[in-house]
Amino acid sequence: MLTGKQRSYLKSLSNGLQSTLIIGKDGITKNTLKELEDQLTAKELVKMTFLDTAGVDPEDEVDRILEILDADFVSHLGSKLVIYRPSKNVKIRLPK
Predict the structure, then answer these.
(1) Regarding beta strands 72-77 and 45-50, do their DSSP bridges make them parallel or antiparallel, or are they unpaired?
(2) How far apart are CA 61 and CA 21, in angstroms?
(3) Do 49 and 21 meet the contact criterion of CB atoms below 8 Å apart?
(4) For the whole model, what pTM was predicted?
(5) Is there a contact between 83 and 33 (Cβ–Cβ < 8 Å)?
(6) Coil, strand or helix at 43
(7) Which residues contact 17 (CB under 8 A, 6 or more apart)?
């Protein structure tokens, strides 16, 4: 569970990130979850974009994604969603 200070720090890091995962008309599939898993393992912080044609609302999907991937919510703004999960090879040092 992230503290408010940690979440704010991660939000500031995510401002400079490009979306590396785009959710399209198929919505959240097994392949999408696999790609998200790989990106979280490699990068720890992932920004994704939900297209208008996705047929799902990011607000409706966020809890499911977080539960499946054991990740933490960072931010949601419009069609963008940012999530975080620490990996064994720590790249992001969170404030205490």
Answers:
(1) unpaired
(2) 14
(3) yes
(4) 0.89
(5) no
(6) helix
(7) 45, 47, 82
Alpha carbons 59 and 61: distance in angstroms, whole number:
6
The pair of three-digit structure tokens given for residue 94, joined into one six-digit string = 């969170």
- Give exposure, 54-86, as e/b (b: 16+ Cβ within 10 Å): beeebeebeeebbeebebbbbbeeebebbbbbe
The Cβ-side half-sphere exposure at 51, using a 13 Å CA radius, reads 10
Residue with tokens 């419009």: 78
pLDDT band at 27 (very low <50, low <70, confident <90, very high): confident
Task: Answer whether residue 68 shows pLDDT above 90.
Answer: yes
85 touches 70 (CB < 8 A): yes
